[in-house]
Amino acid sequence: MSDQKKTKTTVDIYGQQYSIVGSESTSHIRLVASIVDDKMREISEKNPSLDINKLAVLTAVNVVHDYIKVKDELEALQKIVQELRET
User: Fold this and answer.
1) What is the pTM of this model?
2) In the chain, where are the structural domains located?
């Protein structure tokens, strides 16, 4: 069992209310929800005919794409740091 305290936070994403339970701070959960909301609105603006399910999937694809790019950049930087430490 986890010793971390769980908090319940209600957020608004694309006009819908969601209750999110997690061990992160309320401000962190609200930031994540805000980013998801912003990305959904950005995609919807460019593709206004998308239904909510397709919009949600495209949002997930975009966010994961951004995550993979940042992860790859981090790994490249970590490799450079490791190489510098070895010299």
Assistant:
1) 0.83
2) 7-86
